[in-house]
Protein 1
Amino acid sequence: MTTPEPPNPYAPPAASLNAEDAGAPSADEIAELASRWQRLGGALFDGLLALVAMIPAFFGVSLAEFAGRNRTGSSPFFLFTETGTWGVVAGGLFGALTILQWTLLTKRGQTVGKILAGTRVVCLDDSRAGFLRAVVLRLWPGEIVSRIPLLQWLTLVDVLFIFGASRRCLHDRIAGTKVVTVRS
């Protein structure tokens, strides 16, 4: 009978071909895609928060019109520049809300609306999306396009992609992300 050879301390480590050992998500770790209604609910709540942040500017415009000041020029920042203190307050609230939403998206993959809807933005492999994918690639192109008058219809096309089998909007496809349900 021969004795087994002792292990070679200088040999490279043996790799396991088992998917569980390789760090790939198991079947129970893969998140379920969020429903279209969950996504709509989260987006509507985020839009409502933005609207609430703008209320002081609208109030300032009403006061300016009541005082007889007419809107001059076509500055896109009219609500913040022509409404005095109310515009500054609205700009501060909107800026703070934007920073909050971007931070939540970067750290958790969620906005306030997504937290309430029970959804999260992740990469296609279910890893964390981060700032580049969740904010820069996912949000900024849509914001830029929505500001160009002849291309605003593309925002509707973006949303209509949700009706595909993968439930991924155009901005999800650009960023390589998907929206999944958060497990409790």
Note: The beta strands are 119-123, 177-181.
Protein 2
Amino acid sequence: MAARYFTPALFEFLHDLSENNDRAWFKANQERYESLVRQPALAFIEDIGGPLYKVSRHLVADPRKVGGSLFRVQRDTRFARDKTPYKTHVGIHFRHVATREDVHAPGFYLHLEPRNSHAWLGLWHPPADRADAVRRAIADDPAAWRRAAYGKRFADAYGAPTGDSLTRPPRGFDPAHPLIEDLKRIDFGAGVRLTQAEVTSAHFLDAYLDTVRAGVPLMRFLCRALDLAF
């Protein structure tokens, strides 16, 4: 039988946390976090590992409590104006094994948040050298980029690439290039919105895997641009 990992109670907890984002409240509700959020998320990561390996043996599903695919709930507030201590969403990142410790690595990302859940894939805010490598790959083989980022199966699942972009063409690239808007990208990826009903369905793992598989062409292009196996 299909397993149901996430329940409406997870979203209720996240809503409550957004209304009571302080250490005293979280400590008093630690057991709720463990049972409704962390344990279901780790079970999801554990169970998706095998199917994800079949998509690519270079993608990592790491179910460790600390340092694995599940982002920690604590926020890094050292340089932030917002000093609230906890994230009010669940973040799960299936990264490329060669860069598994890097949040800017190519991978698949699952974001669970009340009224703002989504699945995303690609490169988020990569360092300048990686961004330049992807832009060079796009400029050198525009047909391959179009197939990867705008092919039918990908477009049916994700629409079009999304994310932040430069306001001006990047240095070293022709401003008149037909793909200049893609060359201006800071993020190289795409996402799809998820409803709470979809996330809490007993068939969510399979549905999420379908989304992952649809994103393979773009992931393969990005990995090739970075000299990573896929």
Note: DSSP finds ten helices and four strands in the chain.
Protein 3
Amino acid sequence: MWIIFTLLAIFFQTIRNLEQKKLSNKIDAITASWSRFILPFPLSILAIIYFYENLNQQFAINIFLNAIFQSLGNYFLIKSLQQKNYSLAIAFAKTEVIQAIIVGLIFFNTKINFYEILSIIIAFVGVLMMININISNKKVFLEKIKNTGNLYALLCGTCFAITAFNLKSASQILIDANFNYLISAILVLLFTIFLQNIFYGAIKIYQKRLICDLKKLFLAENILGFLIAGIASFLGSIFWYTAYAIGQVIYVKTLGQLEVIIAILISAFFLKEQHKKIELIGILVTLFGILFLLLHNFILHD
């Protein structure tokens, strides 16, 4: 089931990223980042009212960290999309799978076997090929890492890696309280969205731009993008959160690298951005790594 939810999440996230890229050309990155969390805000208020009794200290900590790091991750992604072509920004952000392994091993006692490591390395090499980064040339490699757009995307990956483990921990608390996977994921999402709207609103009040920037967001030429990004984001987040609640974080993130392939196809055919043969070969390598992981998962649970 986690595979189906992940594929649905990738579909809606791709739509959201495209719309937020367009919005970020018209409004600042913070407002563009906030735009994805505004529509579900009324639902999040209802969730707080009716389910606040499920809050305990550990759940509250997970939700708080989730809200902070998902907000930061989305902001860094938009900053990256503003400075790079679409597919490269997504590719660098998707290095989160390696970052997630590190975060999981250090902070969340994640266990991973040899075949899982092998498949993740294969998929990651494919992502490096799609990024067209030459590790053997240290000077070029360091220049690419130091590039501001790439750095934002890497920070995005770090934030999303931390987010995934916190939302899974929060979901597990609700599952242990006899909520099913889907309801648990939706409640964690709504509690998170409530805090995110508070955070972004406070930032805009501090900047003394709350009314001004909301007016920009709701201008006639921006409103369609806002609606599409908001709806696609909410649906995509429901599927992501459910996938993480059901499956292993590392598995979900590895399959999530399919988004890089979709991003390159969109970049090439719709945004008319140029790509080299090495990047196309990287697609096949990444696909092989993902399929190897999924095959191992099926054999393991057969």
Note: The CA atoms of residues 184 and 200 lie 24 Å apart.
